[in-house]
Write a structure and sequence with these properties.
By secondary structure, the protein is mostly helical. The protein has one domain (7-402): M75 peptidase, HXXE motif (A middle domain of Talin 1). The chain has 15 helices and 4 strands. Helix 3 (62-81) runs parallel beside helix 10 (292-308), helix 11 (324-331) packs across helix 12 (333-358) and helix 12 packs antiparallel against helix 14. The protein is globular and about 70 Å long.
């Protein structure tokens, strides 16, 4: 079954008549303006989330928890569109793991179902449960966690033991604290944490409600401060903007690297095809909230944004200017049109997934072994992303800025290695 949608069709009409760029510097300026606007929107929506979290902690209720969840979902829309800036920009890549690392061993943070298991050879901290333990041992030293603070999360817990799955900060730690584990496997349904996990006194469920609230607040406050910092890096005089503008060739290559690496190794490979190969809902990007269909969609849109040089802000205004598409069209109009077409095809395929999920065929259901319909939806988008990457490679060639290496994935490059 194919799910009909008008979402992507509306997108195709954007930037139909490009204005040719006068210089690479102007193109890089547009790119930096879109980055700054995207991180500013991410910050604004995270501050709304912060307010909702504060309200939940102050007066816990089912309605307050739902409001916090809705704010988290809204915050993901602009942030996912900024992921294209990660690859090719060292400032972003070095920072990104603090705010969007996944998957995570959620037992590090809070209680988990017995089916989760516990300590493993790979991660001795997988069931640490900081919420329940004001004192614990980390790296052979006793840690005083009586006060759960941003400094504790960032300085001692996040990636503790140099283990990437010890994710203590960022969107996904907050997501887990709002939704709890998704115990539905590849059946329909997201996490279902009760609001009483934040209640006071005798109404508290699963113990340590005050500390759970402290963790949620610390993680949310830290996310806001991290986004303040990144938005500043792309403002006038910011380090990320300056790094892009100071060398035209390196700057153009940063745009292309971000587009190609997110399209290919990260999204098509690690975030999509790998999950299909393993039939594993734990490979969902937003696995607790069942929001993965939106994360994939807005990742794809972010790639399209930077190529066309336009970004639709949360407030409805548009940031636009001379674009990479203009430069490619000036060098070879056929290559530009082919890349535009493939970007549009990708958005249509991602919109099919989004529409299906919103109609009740959730992404984790698509990942179920033997679900041919779900596999077809996901793999059609994977194939479109791979084709899009090939078109990006042709754009690299016509621009003549030098050979680039995009991020890869065993799921695409060496599938047998996935099962070794």
């Amino acid at each position: 079954m194919r799910f009909k949608t008008t979402t992507a069709i509306a997108l195709i009409s954007l930037a139909a008549a490009p204005v040719f760029a006068q210089s690479k510097t102007e193109v890089l300026g547009t790119y930096a303006d879109i980055a700054q606007a995207g991180y500013a929107d991410s910050l604004a929506t995270a501050q709304t989330l912060q307010q909702a979290v504060d309200a939940l902690i102050a007066e816990p209720s089912a309605e307050a928890l739902q409001a916090a969840r809705a704010a988290w979902l809204a915050a993901r829309v602009p942030y996912q569109q900024t992921e294209v800036f990660r690859f090719g920009n060292a400032i972003v890549d070095d920072w990104e793991g603090k705010v969007n690392a996944w998957p995570l061993d959620e037992g590090l943070i809070d209680y988990v179902d017995a089916s989760y298991g516990g300590v493993s050879d790979e991660n001795a901290l997988a069931a640490l449960n900081v919420v329940a333990n004001p004192v614990f041992t980390l790296g052979g030293e006793e840690v005083d966690a009586a006060q759960i603070t941003p400094a504790l999360l960032e300085g001692q817990l996040h990636e503790a033991g140099a283990i990437e799955s010890n994710v203590a900060t960022g969107y996904h730690a907050i997501e887990f604290l709002l939704w709890g584990q998704d115990l539905n496997g590849t059946d329909f349904g997201a996490g279902n944490r009760p609001w009483t996990d934040y209640a006071t006194g005798a109404d508290c469920t699963n113990d340590n409600c005050d500390r759970r609230g402290d963790y949620l607040k610390a993680a949310t406050d830290l996310l806001v401060s991290d986004l303040v910092w990144m938005a500043d890096q792309w403002a006038e005089g910011g380090a990320a903007r300056q790094a892009v503008l100071e060398d035209e060739t390196a700057g153009i290559n940063a745009i292309l690297t971000g587009m190609g690496s997110l399209s290919y190794g990260e999204q098509a490979g690690e975030r999509m095809k790998l999950g299909v190969m393993l039939n594993d809902p734990e490979e969902e990007h937003d696995c607790f909230s069942d929001n993965t269909h939106n994360s994939h969609y807005y990742d794809g849109l972010g790639v399209r944004n930077v190529y066309l040089g336009e970004y639709l802000r949360v407030d409805g205004s548009v940031v636009s200017g001379p674009s990479l598409s203009d430069l490619v069209a000036a060098a070879d109009a056929t290559v530009d049109q082919d890349l535009r077409d493939r970007l549009n095809t990708t958005m249509v395929e991602l919109a099919q997934i989004k529409t299906a999920a919103e109609a009740g065929f959730s992404y984790d259901m698509m990942l179920a072994r033997g679900n041919a319909e779900g596999e077809a939806l996901i793999m059609s988008a994977v194939d479109a992303l791979v084709d899009q990457t090939r078109a990006i490679e042709r754009a690299v060639t016509v621009l003549g800025t030098g050979a680039l290496a995009f991020e890869g994935s065993d799921s695409l490059d060496d599938p047998n290695a996935v099962f070794e």
